[in-house]
Amino acid sequence: MLLFFVSILTNKRIVMTNNNFSPYISIGSRVRKSPYFESTKRCGAKAFSIYNHMYMPTLYTSVVEEYWSMVNDVVMIDVAVERQIEISGPDAHKLVRFITPRDVSNCDMGKCYYILLTGEDGGIINDAVLLRLEEEQFWISPGDGDVLLWIEGIAINSGMDVKVFEPDVSPLQMGGPKSPHVMHALFGDLAIDLGYYRAVQTEVQGIPLVLGRTGWSGELSYELYLQDGSRGNELWDCLMDIGKPLGLSPGHTSTIRRIEGGMLSYQADMDCNVNPFELGLDRLVDLEMDADFIGKNALKKIKEEGVKRRQVGIVINCPPLENSNTSYWPIFIDSKEVGFVTSAIHSPRLNKNIAMAIVSIDYSSLNTTASVETPHGTYPVKVVEKPFYDPKKHLASMT
Known about the structure:
The protein has ten helices and 22 strands.
């Protein structure tokens, strides 16, 4: 993510500047605002991005300061841009099984799964968290992309008895080692006893929501899925009043932390031209299950033939990167282009420039050396293990 310094000039315009240019983002009715939009401005949001056709706050203080807040304390993040897709009806489970290569036959009520959505050619349409709330009610929480339209199109021609629509649901994420303290103050033992990748219907001061032990941070996280958008600012204020004495501050999903954890960002690290096997996500593809799913035959063929490229972790030997990359950086070996960097950042904790890249399978082995062309020069790189930090995800899964 490119770092911007932002000043809110009027209710209609936000000006953003860095050392190179001063673009404007127009604030109007065409792009949706989250139920927490006014609260984020009040709390000092200095930058916004557009994600799923909605404004998403991306900076309050600094990228590094918010990173340390997340790994040491607890950060509240407006992730209402995770626009939920509800699939309900007698054939809801059948449709869910049809759109993902992961076996979700044992997805009981209250359970969550990380899933991929694949196209007919095996490419990744999106990645998402699947929540089962009732016997015939599922939510899909996707990354940036028009997944609702894709699933609606499938449902219309499926002959299945289902409804597909966007419910009034807007998540907030709590991430960091002190998040259980805030959650306990709000929900008591319910939050502490809630298992990893589980969800439960509850409320806060009469505000209806679903509490989930999910989150895109690499740290121990919760997500509060608000079910009444008119009460967004009320919920925000309630959480800040209770959480601030416990170390809570507003922030954004940390680019540094997510790259440290090897977490993928749709459109950056993968898209419809990348398949699960290239990303090493074989565990999310079950080609032996009885259920048919979109892309099954293509994924069988890809697995049989083997992939020609692979996602790897690399370390870049250069001065600390001040910002993450805003374009793909080509990787060379002896003047031959063998891949490209998808996400790169400097980790202050590891004191390294770390990145995820897609490279030819012939150059994907650990300790392979190459060079990368960046806007700042050409530098040596080496293939290393990923994730770069907490590879077993102990932090995120602990209770």
